[in-house]
Amino acid sequence: MTDTDLIIGSDGRARPAWAAGTDLLRHYYDTEWGMPVRDEQGLFERLSLEAFQAGLSWELVLRKRAGFRAAFADFDPERVAGFGEREVEELLENREIIRNRRKIAAVIRNARAVLDLREDGGLADLIWSHQPATNLAPRTLAEIPSRSPESEALSKALKKAGFTFVGPVMCFALMEAIGMVDTHLLESHRRGTSGVWA
């Protein structure tokens, strides 16, 4: 393991370098990242934030998370699905979020796809049906892939259901964030805390 894979914080806890840089990232890593999310609204929020993160830093998205929640009605898919051109123009003027027309349009489109999925088991069933049969056991960051056969299958299933901004790399990041795969390094203090993998 390289000396930058895990950093021991002042609290004595081992975290990967990406999670050790700021208080915001440490808090996110310690309390949320990799914990199971199985409700529709929570999953819609994670999908939406992953879409906004594309090409940008996750810390930027986290800094604007409160703004995103206010702008997108706490990621209530029924309310977001009703957004029209007036709301899009207001969002493009909103300095509290990442102002990108394509990403805003994707979130609205995805909200409508979430509602359509309710007749077919729902978003949570679709996403969690792609949980891999076995978990990863990375000792180094280099051992963590950016995509997997399951994330590729999930991407295809979401696209078929009408979602956009859901490529296999984004889907793998989502799977990590919601605990479907545990990519905490083996010596991280968070390894195994999700309860998903025995």
TrEMBL record:
Organism: Corynebacterium nasicanis
The name this protein goes by in its record: DNA-3-methyladenine glycosylase I
Domain of life, source organism: Bacteria
Signal peptide: none
InterPro entries: Adenine_glyco (IPR005019), DNA-3mA_glycosylase (IPR052891), DNA_glycosylase (IPR011257)
Pfam families listed in its UniProt record: Adenine_glyco
Stretches assigned to coiled coil: none
